[in-house]
UniProtKB/TrEMBL annotation:
NCBIfam families: xth. It comes from Corynebacterium tuscaniense. Its cofactor is Mg(2+); Mn(2+). This is Exodeoxyribonuclease III. Belongs to the DNA repair enzymes AP/ExoA family. Mg(2+) binds at residues 7, 34, 151, 153, 243-244. Pfam families: Exo_endo_phos (PF03372). Probably binds two magnesium or manganese ions per subunit. The record marks 217 as: Important for catalytic activity. Keywords: Hydrolase, Magnesium, Manganese, Metal-binding. One of its GO terms (molecular function) is metal ion binding.
Amino acid sequence: MRIATWNINSVRTRVDRAVAFLERNDIDVLAMQETKCSDDKFPYSAFEAVGYEVAHVGYHQWNGVALISRVGLEGVKDHFPNQPGFDKDPAKPQNREARAVGATCNGVEVWSLYVPNGREIADRHYDYKLEFLWRLGEVADKQKAQVLCGDFNIAPTDKDVWERAFFEGKTHVTEPERAAFQRVVEFGLTQVKHEEPYSYFDYKGMRFQRGEGMLIDFQLASPQLPARAWVDLEERAGEKASDHAPVIADYDLSALLIDEVR
């Protein structure tokens, strides 16, 4: 099964690119983040017309996540257990944001996740980010075949950023963030590896052209799902592209079939 994860940075702006991407890469399941629209404005028909089902969680023009599948969408969940909420005013209700959607696709539980950015280390959003990741660790289940996909907004090691000194005093590279990411992995998942070093390139400063990026988009999978992965840098190089490149992985589901026979 071929799964892709992509922070599309506005699905309505790039819906034609998304459909072309699915067809060009023969994608079975696409986990999409930052759709930036509410459910009633999501372009469902564009994906349904080429044979995909859609599960989308969007409350307004910010955040937004989707699962787009041609191999089934069973048991759709619009959040994970104990998913925290946020409001910049601590006195107001901390409402849950559109940052997680999960479903079973061809026997595998797949999640599309958009981890909070954190903004600045002294910001309440940074604490929200850590709590979100802490709770996300509870989603991992060693008894299930799972793939947790998305924009994690964390570079887990120094080699996952083009220049460590550039990020000094900033989010995405702090030890608490990295420890929280590692905690999710240690619940029984494996970070799917690929040769390409980065998945995100800021629009500013000609970062993509200079090869100055970050690796913050991941697929974390159950060990019983061997995978081969790559980053679609050609998509990032296209005209009016998202600042994130899709991360694609091919999963071997033969172990699941053997368990079914047993």
